Amino acid sequence: MAAVVEPTAPPDSPSQRPPDRPRPGWWFSEGPGHEAMRARQRRDWAAAAERLDELLARPDLSRDDRGAAHLLRGTVHIKRDEFAAAADQFAAARGTPGLAPIESRVTLLEAQAHLDASQPDRAYALVAQQGSPQGSLAAAWLVVHADAARRTDRSDEAIRTYQHFLDKYPKASRRHEVRAKLATLLLERNNRASVDQAHRLLEQLLADVPLSNYADTAYATLLKDAKKTDRKRAAELRREHQRSTLRALAQRRRYSQLERESKTFLKTNRRLDERTRCEALYLQGNAVFHQRQRAEARPQLLRAAASCRQAKWADLEVKARYQAARGAYAAGQYSRAAEEFEQLAAQFADHTYADDALILAGESWQDAGKPGAAKAAYERSVSQHPRGDMAGEARRRLVLLAFRDRRPDDVIRLVDGALVDQRLPARERAKLQYLRGRALQELGRDDEGTRAFLATMETYPLSYPALLAASRLREAGEAAWAAAVEILERPAKPAPVGLKLPLTPAAQRAQLLAQLGLERAVRDELDDTGIGGWPAIAVMARAGLYPQAQRMVASLESSWRTTPPTGPNRELWQLAHPLAFEDIVTAGEPRHGVPRYLTFAVMQTESRFDPGVTSPAGAKGLVQLMPATAKSVASKAGIKLRRRQLYDPATNLDLGMRYLARLIERTGDPAAAPVLAVPSYNAGAGSVARWIRERPDWDLDLWVEAIPYDETRKYVQSVLGRWFVYRWLYATDLAVADRVPYLPLTRQNG
User: Fold this and answer.
1) Element housing 486 (H / E)
2) Measured between alpha carbons, how far is 700 from 696 in angstroms, rounded to an integer?
3) HEC secondary structure over 75-104
4) Is the same domain home to 526 and 612?
5) What is the C-alpha separation between 406 and 403, in angstroms, rounded?
6) Residue ranges in 577-684 assigned as alpha helix (H)
7) Same domain, yes or no, for 148 and 55?
8) To which H or E segment does residue 199 belong?
9) Contact 653, 599 (CB under 8 A)
10) SS3 state at 131
11) Which of 541, 567, 593 is the last residue of a domain?
């Protein structure tokens, strides 16, 4: 294996970890209880059950710990569909003093388990004898109460309770389920008022969730009743349901089914008005397009555009023509595609697709061998749509063209024109400042270039642009490097937000539930009292509930990233970049030859630390391995692999690190390995090899910026930026120079 450029310091062991490393704040800090919670975190329910049973067998277990163990054992039974056993465990947990703040939740869990175990009488006895609790449980309590009443032949009570739920919680997540159940009970009454109310509920289900089982049942019921009284209404109902289904399939990106359903809709509805026909033709063509049949979709999209023009539906005409032009590009008809994009941008200059069309016109002209026309298209995108969402992309492409053509003065002009915009996000501003520094270097104005690189780090200190800037400053000499380090170590202002929760019952419940690792329940309590932002993130992250914490971090505005992780600001950075599954990663990276902390950056980018996630393409687990890739890696390592094991963190991470190491070895270039291996991980080694052949002499920073796949380009920059964060935050046993990854400009074998 090719050596990986790494400091000689050994990997962390537990005794070497810096004292400020955040650890999950779980109820059980050691022993079988702690091991059970770790097993729950990695969704290993069998191991969790075994450890909890071991814990519960201890005669000296405290009352509070026993209650917590019973509660957790009940949740494991639920995961394994062992509902009667779960109810018994929850019953044993009730009355535990340490769980008193969440007594109502434990009761609700027990009642739901009784319902799922076909024990509705026991469920009804639990919930009906108590008043509905306040707060986050109130809505769920009403549903369980109504379900128990319905299944114990108390239909009037069930109807009242379901209706009360809908009146009080009209936007609750379970509203569709409740509407369906209420409609069923109302239809059983068999009187006109009840039937009319039921029909209104069913029609709402058809409109709101057309792809659900609730909608299927609602449609069948409404169609059956309509056929008895009004056949014209039945035909309208069928057409309306088909149309809403097509829209929902498009929204869910279920393109294969959408293609079939739209074809059937057009075939069975010959007398459609032009607007409906326009939409159906567009959805059909777009479905074909999104199944990687872009050229084949072009004729259908052109028919859709003609229909939409006749219907005077300009928005869909533009979208159909835009996709049709992309189909021409996919067929290699670059000049035709460019001309169609140009025509679209000129004819519909006020449409949101106009600047996109100019971008793709430029790309098409480039592939047609007409760089002057490409440059002109990008320039029109910037000048005609300076505040459009594609202005930055057009400018990026113009900058790359200027670098390619050795026009550094044009780079500076373009960058300076963009930097005057005060609304520019810090990440984008930092990238532009870095590119400005590179252009200044090419002009021989090294001192100005150094200042531009330092400005990059000032603007967004731990980011991909800052990592590039730090690499250039390292090359510039000791003084420049010292200035870069000073920025990273500069004392921060006090933390912009506090992390403590308010002293409220809901906050107390949230903290207790977090210690037990019950993520959804924590979220309910926090939402109910409006607790969000960093205090909520802290609760989640400190309890090892990383996926939810990561989603919350992503929803924050990013001003906190403009200050380096020093002083009180350091904790924010650690909460946002946790050492999830640390024991697996820190043992595996040195064994497989993966640069230290790179796996955390890949894992965070791929899955937000969620071991159970599956991508639309079928990639699975923490580092999003495709089954075929995982099978190949496992086979070469002599590992027998079952597909479900890809959701096991240890298996997924081990195979992911092996694969990453293979990609690193394939580069044959230790210094540049991360820059080349990371895009290979996302787009495949074949794509990376092709891009190297196409731009063999490009500096690596510009080579990354020129990656033609938007997803891969952003992925590479995200992973490398996060790698910088992890190294700087946690590799505190290393010298400062070794904590900052170095990204060279050139490949050794280039």
Assistant:
1) helix 478-489
2) 10
3) HHHHHCCCHHHHHHHHHHHCCCHHHHHHHH
4) no
5) 5
6) 582-592, 598-607, 627-636, 649-667, 673-683
7) yes
8) helix 192-208
9) yes
10) coil
11) 567
Q: Are 163 and 197 in contact (CB under 8 A)?
A: no
Distance of CA 303 to the CA centre of its chain: 36
Q: What is the largest CA-CA distance in the chain?
A: 88
Is residue 620 helix, strand or coil?
Answer: strand
The pLDDT-based confidence of 2 (bands split at 50, 70, 90) is very low
| CA gap 330, 338 in Å, rounded | 12
The confidence score (pLDDT) of residue 14 equals 36
Check residues 19 and 456 and name the one with the higher pLDDT.
Answer: 456
- In angstroms, the CA 245 to CA 253 distance is 12
The CATH number of the domain holding residue 51 is 1.25.40.10
Instruction: Count CA within 13 A, CB hemisphere, residue 207.
Output: 7
State residue 22's pLDDT score: 53
**In CATH, what number is assigned to the domain containing residue 650?**
1.10.530.10
The count of domains in the chain is: 4
Q: How far apart are the first and last CA of the chain?
A: 19
Instruction: Name residues whose C-beta falls within 8 Å of residue 444's C-beta, 6 or more positions apart in sequence.
Output: none
Q: Residue 661 domain-assigned?
A: yes
Q: CB–CB of 400/713 below 8 Å?
A: no
User: Does the residue 7 lie in any domain?
Assistant: no
In sequence order, which residues have a C-beta less than 8 Å from that of residue 280 and are 6 or more positions away? 243, 246, 262, 265, 266, 272
Closest CA to 535 of 571, 582, 570: 571
How confident is the model over 63-84, as pLDDT tens digits? 999 999 999 999 999 999 999 9
CA distance 522 to 514: 6
Residues 196 and 142 in one domain: yes
Q: Which of 558, 315, 300 is nearest to 426 (CA)?
A: 558
Close Cβ partners of 265 (under 8 Å, ≥ 6 residues apart): 242, 243, 246, 280
Asked whether residue 550 falls in the same domain as residue 624, the answer is: no
Rounded Cα distance between 110 and 131, Å, is 16
Q: Which DSSP string do the residues of 573-596 spell out, in sequence order?
A: HHHHS--TTHHHHHHHHHHHTPPT
Confidence of residue 9 (pLDDT cuts 50, 70, 90): very low
638 and 716 together in one domain: yes
Question: Between 17 and 568, where is the model more confident?
Answer: 568
3-state secondary structure labels for all residues of 446-468: HHHHHHHHHHHHHHCCCCHHHHH
Specify the residue for token string 């403009």.
562
Residues 417 and 511 in one domain: no
* Nearest-angstrom CA–CA distance, 422 and 429: 9
DSSP H or E segment with residue 258: helix 255-268
> Are 612 and 662 in a shared domain?
yes
Judged by DSSP in three states, 731 sits in coil
Q: Closest by alpha carbon to 204, among 185, 183, 229?
A: 183
For residue range 181-227, list pLDDT tens digits in order: 999 999 999 899 999 999 999 999 999 999 999 999 999 999 998 88
Residue 86 within any structural domain of the chain: yes
Tell me the residue range of the domain where 515 lies: 505-567
Q: Say if residue 105 is in the same domain as residue 163.
A: yes
Last residue of a domain, one of 201, 217, 242: 201
Beta bridge partners of 625: 620
Q: Is residue 421 part of a domain?
A: yes
